[in-house]
Amino acid sequence: MPGLLQFDPNCLMVLRRSLLTVAPLEGCALLLGDQQDSHTYQGGNIWCVRLIWPCCNTWVAGMSSFPEVSGDPDLFDSSLLSRKHRFALDPREQLQAQRFARERSWRVLGSAHSHPGGEAVPSPADHRWAVFPALMVIVAGSGNVRAWWLTGVQSDQQHEVACLGQ
Prior knowledge:
Layout: E1 2-7, H1 11-20, E2 28-36, E3 45-55, H2 73-76, H3 91-103, E4 107-115, H4 124-129, E5 134-140, E6 145-150, E7 158-164
Parallel strand pairs: 1-3, 1-7, 4-5
Antiparallel strand pairs: 2-3, 2-4, 5-6, 6-7
């Protein structure tokens, strides 16, 4: 689990621009970088984002084996079943990003996506679609960037991660 997420110069600019340019649709990207043990940061390891890998949002209704039904109205509401409220990363882009990262002794640290009409907080759908544990960075339509460590399906199983470079 990251104690601190540090962005290299220009990464936040690239993140905001690439994710918010596609508004009102959700934009998405992968975060590439490395992990540093830190004895000076008491919150634990510092994860360094070295590169933003913008991706195409490939989400389409019915694409997963998860039915979009549950007791949560945000997951069942058919008006939310569009790229305006959902995102999916193309597996081919994920493989290319992993290869690129490995060549530099980096790794894919997590994913990022936008909430163009909302806050930079994981939605119930974000929790449902996440593979745990996961680092998720969310960019609000206002440009606010927040990072989250998700450990489970419930919203109480998330921890905000401090970000440097904002």
